């Protein structure tokens, strides 16, 4: 998982380098074994007491993957943190923040030093396993997210997971690539995973014996239930939970057509049809707005797949992402950003397939990728990272893109294609 | 001595005196039309030949019927193909579907399943919907030719089961298809009349 952009690397501890004040922007300066590029992102370093190096590495990587910092990578030859922290040294390197990790009984204490303001901005203790393994890893990720929030005011995304399809099963992986686990346990082909808003359950379609009902699976207990209205034959496509977790939208696909329906997932009853394309149009891939009042979806009613929107009760169905008859490529799989500002989707363009973002502010859609075939976008909870499936490099794997820095990193390395990713909400509860 | 004994002695004497000549004894041949024992075996051999011939004829008839049934099953199973992002039945496949309809009309116990497939373009989920359109389109065509809708099931596997996993035009064309499976009633099949 290599980062594409340059990093601030310390090769040796040298005092008094005279780096006070920012260097000229856009200019790489090599001085005494240090490569530093001044930019808009604050520099940060993560230091840990002896015995906490694996925790330190997880936090350092989380902060790097947040794409909000220039993370100073400390070489192995640099002594681990012991005794008092030498803040003046890090200030001289032009860093803005220093994270100090020390062991306490039962876990780790983290202090976030504001080097410019000469204060401790955050001091928290967490019961994490110093070896940094197992379910305690999520606790370390929550620590990293608190650091991101203290610096930027925005929540971090380290304490999240991604569901995806590989082979016939649904798999799960931590956002930093650890803890790859197979989640679905049935026979047949499992597809189109979706998260419940509280992160405790997932839904997916299970295609077996020529029919595809939707399965609800509790992630903690493993219990499975079949969603009402999905087991009468045909395929129940693209399930998605409402933001309050009480309802589910899906697209039953039968010989009468493919249309979007709603079901009460709390009472497990009461299926209602929202679209009536019937024999004339397919409607699928519903995506709620974060306030639950509107639903974006994919429809062929104009002759080719394009992105539409409707009220959550099915009223006011209208085109959303502008298209121009036959000249705009078919557009698929809309997903609404958690902050409500954008819709990501994929579109066939020339010989390829690209991730597009429609911005409600500008009313325009732009391409985020240009190489190869890219599809199935899903938003991270921070509304600035997108995961998607791509043929760049070899095979078909999942890649994560930061919309602000344009940095792209590879998340999966599976045998066979990794597809249909779904990024979790922030995971706050106990998840095994 | 009695007269018999005297006569016997006289016969012996005569026999003894004439012993230099062999008496000519000629067995009288038994004249019949057929030997009784050979007729049974000939009858049995003929009956056996007839039985073997009948068995062979029965096997030949069964093989011919099975070949005819297999041919009908093949015609039922023949795949139809579709243009990119389309689900209309193409003209080149009309005769194939007409033949399937005729076989189904001639065999009222026959039930089939039509399974629609798509090539890998588009999105995985849309391709499941497109495959279902293709299955429904083939079913509608057969229903318009007089096959009861209740005897035709439909399903879609989208792009999940390609016949050719390559990413080129000929693979995509092969994957855009509807397949037909016999679900019930295929053990004995009769040819449609006039065929």
Give a structural overview.
- The complex is a heterodimer of chains A (432) and B (195).
- Chain A is mostly beta strands.
- Helix content of chain A is 8%, strand content 41%.
- Chain A is built from three helices and 33 strands.
- Chain A has helices at residues 53-65, 87-92, 136-152, and strands spanning 8-10, 29-31, 34-36, 43-48, 70-74, 97-104, 107-114, 119-126, 161-166, 169-174, 181-182, 189-195, 201-207, 214-218, 224-226, 235-241, 247-254, 257-258, 261-264, 269-273, 283-288, 294-299, 306-311, 318-319, 331-336, 342-349, 352-359, 364-367, 374-379, 385-390, 397-402, 408-410, 418-423.
- In chain A, the strands form eight sheets. In chain A, strands 1-5-4-6-7-8 form a six-stranded mixed sheet. In chain A, strands 16, 17, 18, 19 and 20 form a five-stranded antiparallel sheet that branches. In chain A, strands 11-10-9-33 form a four-stranded antiparallel sheet, with no helix packed on it.
- In chain A, helix 1 (53-65) crosses helix 3 (136-152).
- Chain A is globular.
- The two termini of chain A are 25 Å apart.
- Chain B is α+β, with helices and mostly antiparallel strands.
- Helix content of chain B is 50%, strand content 12%.
- Chain B has five helices and four strands, in the order ααβαβαβαβ.
- Chain B has helices spanning 3-17, 36-77, 94-106, 124-144, 169-175, and strands at residues 80-81, 111-117, 152-158, 177-184.
- In chain B, strands 1-4-2-3 form a four-stranded mixed sheet.
- In chain B, helix 4 links the parallel strand 2 and strand 3 (152-158).
- In chain B, helix 3 (94-106) crosses helix 4.
- Chain B starts with a helix and ends in an 11-residue tail after the last strand.
- The model of chain B has no long low-confidence stretch (mean pLDDT 88).
- The interface between A and B is medium-sized, with 34 and 23 residues.
């Amino acid at each position: 998982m290599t980062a594409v952009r340059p990093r601030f690397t310390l090769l040796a501890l040298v005092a008094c380098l005279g780096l006070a004040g920012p260097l000229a922007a856009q200019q790489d300066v090599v001085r005494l074994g240090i490569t530093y590029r001044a930019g808009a992102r604050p520099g940060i370093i993560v230091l840990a007491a002896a015995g906490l190096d694996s925790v330190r590495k997880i936090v350092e990587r989380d902060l790097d993957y947040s794409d909000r910092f220039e993370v100073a990578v400390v070489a192995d030859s640099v002594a681990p943190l012991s005794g008092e922290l030498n803040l003046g040294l890090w200030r001289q390197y032009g860093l803005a923040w220093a994270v100090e990790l020390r062991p306490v009984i039962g876990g780790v204490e983290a202090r976030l030093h504001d080097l410019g303001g000469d204060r401790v901005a955050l001091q928290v203790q967490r019961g994490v396993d110093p070896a940094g393994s197992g379910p305690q890893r999520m606790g370390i990720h929550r620590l990293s997210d608190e650091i991101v929030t203290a610096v930027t005011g925005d929540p971090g995304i380290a304490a999240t997971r991604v569901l995806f399809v590989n082979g016939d099963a649904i798999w799960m992986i931590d956002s930093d690539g650890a803890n790859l686990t197979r989640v679905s346990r049935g026979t047949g082909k499992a597809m189109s995973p979706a998260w419940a808003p509280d992160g405790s359950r997932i839904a997916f379609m299970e295609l077996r014996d020529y029919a595809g009902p939707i399965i609800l699976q509790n992630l903690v207990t493993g219990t499975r239930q079949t969603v009402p209205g999905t087991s009468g034959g045909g395929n129940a496509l693209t399930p998605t939970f409402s933001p309050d977790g009480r309802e589910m939208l899906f697209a039953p696909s039968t010989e009468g057509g493919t249309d979007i329906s709603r079901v009460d997932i709390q009472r497990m009853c009461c299926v209602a049809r929202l679209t009536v394309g019937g024999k004339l149009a397919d409607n699928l891939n519903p995506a709620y707005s974060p306030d639950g009042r509107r639903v974006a979806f994919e429809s062929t009613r104009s002759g080719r797949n394009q992105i539409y929107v409707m009220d959550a009760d099915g009223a006011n169905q209208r085109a959303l992402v502008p298209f121009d008859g036959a000249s705009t490529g078919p557009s698929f799989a809309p997903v609404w950003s958690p902050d409500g500002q954008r819709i990501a989707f994929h579109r066939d363009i020339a010989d390829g397939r690209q991730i597009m973002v429609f911005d409600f502010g500008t009313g325009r859609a732009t391409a985020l990728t240009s190489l190869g075939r890219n599809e199935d976008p899903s938003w991270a909870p921070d509304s600035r990272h997108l995961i998607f499936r791509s043929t760049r490099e070899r095979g078909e794997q999942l890649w994560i893109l930061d919309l602000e820095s344009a940095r792209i990193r590879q998340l999966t390395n599976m045998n066979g294609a990794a597809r249909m990713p779904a990024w979790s909400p922030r995971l706050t509860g106990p998840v095994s | 001595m009695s007269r018999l004994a005297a006569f016997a002695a006289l016969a012996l004497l005569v026999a003894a005196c004439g012993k230099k000549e062999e008496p000519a004894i000629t067995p009288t041949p038994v004249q019949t039309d057929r030997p009784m024992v050979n007729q049974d075996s000939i009858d049995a051999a003929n009956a056996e030949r007839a039985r073997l011939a009948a068995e062979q004829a029965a096997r030949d008839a069964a093989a011919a019927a099975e070949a005819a049934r297999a041919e009908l099953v093949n015609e039922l199973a023949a795949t139809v193909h579709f243009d990119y992002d389309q689900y209309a039945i193409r003209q080149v496949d009309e005769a194939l579907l007409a033949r399937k309809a005729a076989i189904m009309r001639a065999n009222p116990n026959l039930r089939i399943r039509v399974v629609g497939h798509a090539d890998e373009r588009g999105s995985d989920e849309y391709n499941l919907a497109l495959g279902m359109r293709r299955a429904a389109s083939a079913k509608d065509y057969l229903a318009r030719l007089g096959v009861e809708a209740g005897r035709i099931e439909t399903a879609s596997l989208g792009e999940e089961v390609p016949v050719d996993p390559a990413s080129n035009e000929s693979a995509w064309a092969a994957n855009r298809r509807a397949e037909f499976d016999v679900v019930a009633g295929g053990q004995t099949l009769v040819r449609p009349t006039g065929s």
